[in-house]
Structures are given as structure tokens and as C-alpha cells.
Amino acid sequence: MHEKNLKLLILLIFLTFITNCTTSKPIVITTWTFVNASVAAWEELKDGGIALDAIQKGASVCEEQQCDGTVGFGGSPDEDGETTLDALLMDGKTMNVGAVGALRRIKNAVGVARHVLENTKHSILVGSQATQFAMQMGFHEESLTTPESKKLWSTWANENNCQPNFWMNVKPNPNKYCGPYHNHMSKERIRHMEVDRYNHDTIGMVAIDKNGDIAAGTSTNGAKFKIPGRVGDSPIPGSGAYADNEVGAATATGDGDIMLRFLPSFLAVEEMRRGSSPTDAAQTAIRRIEKHYPEFMGAVIALNKDGEYGAACHGLQGLPFPFVVYDNSHDMYKIHTVNCV
Predict the structure, then answer these.
(1) Any idea which positions bind substrate (predicted)?
(2) Strand, helix or coil at 278?
(3) Residue positions in the annotated binding site?
(4) Residue 16 falls inside a structural domain
């Protein structure tokens, strides 16, 4: 009997070991249905590549393919008709960050973010100075405007009289007229800016490689018709994305001007650190925002260091939030959905 119990104990230890090895298999998770980005990242991971490279590769694909018109060049023109880009990479092994905000005239924003991470002691570079840095790193300067983004802006400015926009408490009344605007404490009712996946959208990615190292990243062209100079949540560590090898990673997408006030990705990771499941952690982050802004639209994905994942969303007009998972458990990627809280 004693020998039998000993054999059972050895078997249990062996199965536990196998399970732990299995949960450290490579995995990448991507917001929305950006399948091509997920496939590109998985190709990097399955061949033994590191998580940071996989995130960069996947986000770069979305920048090139202009995913949903909300990532990369030629989308979401600002009030002046210019497209600018935000991107972030975070290394959960070193806790290092590289990001760019309001990047002008450079297509590969996440590539520039990687150089900020690896070639500077800074975390974020913005605007025209970020463009100068990118050119020093060998990137080509070019217009990010396309015929489609020109038409989008022209319709907004000329046919729709600059509606909707992001101004408030100014003259002339921004609910009726274009600018230029001047400071004025108006009592006009503020018109709600409709937000959906095609306006405030981001590719957010989280990944674990074969070594168990974790990374997260984002890329976006921001909100349509934003005030020039606006930087959203995507390049802000802890807001757009966050990663920590000791716990896991999270990424967020949605109404960035609201979401960045709550650092939802950081909150989700910290909730997992306290023992919450990824789903519960994501729900906590979403509910924290919803408590103060019940009309906001957004979603959070959380991934713990064991490869367990979950998501939560709010305000998608009755639709579920989709995200893509690619790991060794299937021959190809799988699109999951979650109903919003």
C-alpha cells in the first residue's frame, strides 16, 4: 500500500510538472478581429522568438494593412486633416517601455517605439521631435494622408460643419460651428461624441514566449477629428497596455480620453497579482471606469503568467467584444467573444 501511494505521489508530481510546462507554452492575444496581426505574431513565437518581437511584428502588420482604418496611415485625420500615430511596447521581463505619441509622417509607429525602448533612456517621445528621432534611427519620412483620409476630413469640415468634435466651453458654439475657437464658459449642452470600434480603436496585444517572458503593445491612429496634439491612452504605460513577468499582462481599447484616467491595464495586472482570475481582473478594470462614465465604450484583455486569459467590455451597443487567441492548443487562431458588463 505504501509503495502504491508512493507511485501515485510520483505520478501526481509528474503531471503537475507537465501541466506547468504546458501553461508556459507561447501564446498571443489580440484585440478585435485583427487576425493577420495575430498570425504574424504567432509565426514569431512558434519559431522560438521572443514576446517583444512578436508584439512588434503583429502590430506592424496592422499598421501596414490599416486595420479597421483605425491603425496606421490614412485613417482618423485630426481637425487639420493630418493623421498622427501612437504606439507602445512594454517588456515584462525588464519593465522597460518605449512609446511614441502624436507621431507625424512616419508609418511604422511601433517600430519607432522599439527604438525608444532600446536606444534611449526615455519612455515616451512625442510629436515632430519623435519624427526627428525616427529619422535618426533610419525611418523614412512621408505623408500619412491618403485620398480616403482627405475625403473623410473634407466631408467632416465642409459638409458636416465640423460635427462632431472634441471642443467644449468655447466660442463659437462647437455644437454648431467650426473654429477657430476661443475660451468661453458656455452653458450650451455638450453634445456627446459617439464612440465605437471604428472611431476609438486600437490594436492591443499581449504575449508570452517559450521562456515565459511577457510583453504587451499597442498601435493606433487615435480618435477621428481629434484636436491636433491629442495623445490618447494607447502609448501610456498602464493604460494602453502593461506587462510584468511576475504576474501577466493586459491591454485596453476604446474611448482613450476616458480610459487613460483609470490606468485599466495596470489595474487588471494588479488585480491578478492579488489573486483574481484574468476575467475578474478585466471586469474590475471596466467597472471602475463605468462607475464614473456609464456611457463609455471600451474593453480590457488580461493574460496571466500561466497562460490563462479573460476579457471584459462595456458600451458596445449590445454587441460582444471579439479578440483573437493563438497558442499551441489549436492548429490555428481562435476568435473568442465576451458579452459586455
Answers:
(1) 230-233, 253-256
(2) helix
(3) 230-233, 253-256
(4) no
Residue span of the structural domain in which 322 resides: 27-146+193-338
d(CA 272, CA 304): 7
Cell of 302: 488580461
Within the chain, how many helices (H) and strands (E) appear?
A: 9, 14
DSSP 135-191: HHTTPPP-----HHHHHHHHIIIIISTT-S-S--SEES-TTT-----EE----SPPP
* 45, part of any domain: yes
Active site residues: 202
Domain annotation covers residue 176: no
Query: Is 119 domain-assigned?
Result: yes
Residues that constitute the known binding site for substrate: 230-233, 253-256
Per-residue pLDDT of the chain (341 residues; tens, 9 = 90+): 456 555 555 544 444 433 333 444 799 999 999 999 999 999 999 999 999 999 999 999 999 999 999 999 999 999 999 999 999 999 999 999 999 999 999 999 999 999 999 999 999 999 999 999 999 999 999 999 999 999 999 999 999 999 999 999 999 999 999 999 999 775 555 555 555 555 557 899 999 999 999 999 999 999 999 999 999 999 999 999 999 999 999 999 999 999 999 999 999 999 999 999 999 999 999 999 999 999 999 999 999 999 999 999 999 999 999 999 999 998 899 999 999 98
Q: How many domains does the chain have?
A: 1
Question: What CATH number is associated with residue 262?
Answer: 3.60.20.30
C-alpha cell at 304: 496571466
